[in-house]
Amino acid sequence: xxxxxxxxxPRPSTGGDRAEGGEGAPETKxxxxxxxxxxxxxxxxxxxxxxxxxxxxxxxxxxQAIKIASEFVAGIVVGAxxxxxxxxxxxxxxxxxxxxxLLGFAAGVLNVLRAEGKVxxxxxxxxxxxxxxxxxxxxxxxx
Amino acid sequence: MAADKxxxxxxxxxxxxxxxxxxxxxxxxxxxxxxMAATVIVATLFLVFASSxxxxxxxxxxxxxxxxxxxxxxxxxxAAGKAGMQFFPMVFSLFMFVLVANLLGMxxxxxxxxxxxxxxxCLAMLVIGTVVxxxxxKHGFHFFGLFVPQGVPMALVPLVTMIEVISFxxxxxxxxxxxxxxxxxxxxxxxVFAGFVVxxxxxxxxxxxxxxxxxxxxxxxxxLEFLVAFLQAYVFTVLTCMYLNDAIHPGH
Lengths: 143, 252
Hints:
Radius of gyration of chain A: 27 Å
Number of helices of chain A: 5
Number of strands of chain B: 4
Transmembrane segments (chain A): 68-86, 92-113
Keywords (chain A): Membrane, Transmembrane, Transmembrane helix
Strand content of chain B: under 5%
Distance between the termini of chain B: 63 Å
Largest sheet of chain A: none
Order of helices and strands of chain B: HEEEEHHHHHHHH
Protein name (chain A): ATP F0F1 synthase subunit I
Shape of chain A: rod-shaped
Structural class of chain B: mainly alpha
Number of helices of chain B: 9
Order of helices and strands of chain A: HHHHH
Pfam families (chain A): ATPase_gene1
Radius of gyration of chain B: 22 Å
Strand content of chain A: under 5%
InterPro entries (chain A): ATPase_put
Helix content of chain B: over 70%
Number of strands of chain A: 0
Structural class of chain A: mainly alpha
Strand order of the largest sheet of chain B: 1-4
Oligomer: heterodimer
Largest interface: A-B, 43 and 41 residues
């Protein structure tokens, strides 16, 4: 749905062009080249338009809400579960739960920021840092 | 009886079709199992039937099958690069399963398996399990470098690493909750508005006239739900590809 606009776009465009040139004699080479160029340009415009729409393409508000909420809650749930499990295993009753709940809260906020693109993904950041390092070894990796 | 019809949760009830007990484990064949099997059969039949022609100029069915194939292939290649294509069978199967399950759920009286969190959670665990196993198998201990960010003061590294680990562990939960919550909420909303039509039209002529509004809403929601069915299958696939990317390239 989001993808594959290329399949249906060229058809109306060529159709329009054919109707334009259809009345005249067989097309000359420059006319053909111009037509090709026009077609290429319109295709390019359409592609960039679609790419832009995809880039800013916000899903519906409800979808957005569920996405953010699930990211946030998931961090807290995992933190609480980890803390509870550690407490049970080691008998340190409330302490691990307290600490991991707070850590889970931080992880939830991190998840949300990451989902919103405010913080780079861990893998992407590492890759960027690695590329940076291989390019200029003396430079410390940027924050 | 009447209350039962308007109950918006009733559609998610699990019923045992063939009770099977192995020891103390209940392995009954439920309506959920039935629709999972139906999903697999429908997806398989669709792809086999659509690709059986193998014509150079694809027909309608073949075109749909090829579009879904190249759609998933492009998504995977964009997110995980060429090395990600070794996971294509898994990602495509997941996409088709979720998509067909969502769409089957749109048929009246059909059970929506993706509206149960245990189903979506199993799918998400399959993805994360693959990521972890493949990441460790391919990169060994280096895979855990994913959790240790660079350029952080030494004193903060343990704390930040813990947060990163929890963030990683929360991925299957957010992945499964997103699919499950969308399907659950959508189907409940649809049922509630459809229920308004029934209860309103029981209240005489004025009610019948008034029930046009929720009816229009139900029609619009049905269209929205079809969109959500596609969108959530797509989102699940995209996130799967992104997580697989972490397993393939966990930082150099």
